[in-house]
Amino acid sequence: MFSIRTDLALEARELYQENSNQEIPGVEVEQKKEDFATVTRVKVFNRQGSEIMGKPEGSYITVEAPGLKKADADLKDQVSQLLAKELVQLIPKKKNLKTLIVGLGNWNVTPDALGPQVVSKVLVTRHFFEAYGKKDDPTMTSVSAISPGVMGTTGIETVEIIRGIVEKTKPDLVIAIDALASRRMERVHTTIQISTTGINPGSGVGNMRKEFSEKTMGVPVLAIGVPTVVDAATLTNDTIKLVVENLKTQASKGSQFFQILQEMSEEDKYSLIREVLDPYGANVFVTTKDIDIMITNLSQIIASALNISLHPGIDLKDVNRYLH
């Protein structure tokens, strides 16, 4: 199967099904629909499933809420609570839990600023525990947070920075937040993915950095991501598919142009599009014009979910007071 850029396990599964019309061996899928969102759990439990999906073995939970494109305060609260509910199931049930939250990305590039903006809104408490020599509190846990920047501004691999912090502060859990790439424009800003497999910073835009996972950190790593961009070639390919579907119902369906498009394989179409776009820039990614407000809203949603799930004595009302 040819490679269409996507960081979403849900979409990797869809691509396989489009080509084979069957479920991926070694993969289990469970879907639940809420009034305002759909939750899809994809579990990759063996090597075969991992190789087909192009994703490490582990769990991938996707929350899709189309209303987030025009979200009001109530919907943002609902999504935060749903996200917190999923996170609670994955956070270790450990007394005196210590968590490090890492905001990956470049705060100077809006589509890549999700991680840093989340970090600016999380409730950090580690310094209180350290200052007062407190090991346990029934209302909150020890939380630290950092946004390490990108290699282009630091000259240091992000994994090396975080590994040094982990070795020094010894958290029980690391939660990484990063911007992702999707294959469909309708999922940009409306989908949140949680995974137990860690993350490869920059993978969505073809800028692969060192793996950020339990294997490299020495502690469990949860990754939270939101697609903020779509690869231009992928978007164009999907647009052509829609055009072909539309032409099927038109009188022009007997035209030579239609016949050529219909007979081309998906791989040939995608390769042709990339070849045409290459002179204009090999790595062209598309986002929406309201990216600024969407990153602000999504960072609030994710930060609220983290604050609720990591601090038992804090509810959404408290969180909203803190953020506003």
UniProtKB/TrEMBL annotation:
<keyword id="KW-0378">Hydrolase</keyword>
<comment type="similarity">
    <text>Belongs to the peptidase A25 family.</text>
</comment>
<dbReference type="InterPro" id="IPR005080">
    <property type="entry name" value="Peptidase_A25"/>
</dbReference>
<comment type="function">
    <text>Initiates the rapid degradation of small, acid-soluble proteins during spore germination.</text>
</comment>
<keyword id="KW-0645">Protease</keyword>
<dbReference type="GO" id="GO:0009847">
    <property type="term" value="P:spore germination"/>
</dbReference>
<feature type="propeptide">
    <location>
        <begin position="1"/>
        <end position="7"/>
    </location>
</feature>
<comment type="subunit">
    <text>Homotetramer.</text>
</comment>
<dbReference type="Pfam" id="PF03418">
    <property type="entry name" value="Peptidase_A25"/>
</dbReference>
<dbReference type="GO" id="GO:0006508">
    <property type="term" value="P:proteolysis"/>
</dbReference>
<dbReference type="InterPro" id="IPR023430">
    <property type="entry name" value="Pept_HybD-like_dom_sf"/>
</dbReference>
<dbReference type="GO" id="GO:0004222">
    <property type="term" value="F:metalloendopeptidase activity"/>
</dbReference>
<keyword id="KW-0865">Zymogen</keyword>
<protein>
    <recommendedName>
        <fullName>Germination protease</fullName>
        <ecNumber>3.4.24.78</ecNumber>
    </recommendedName>
</protein>
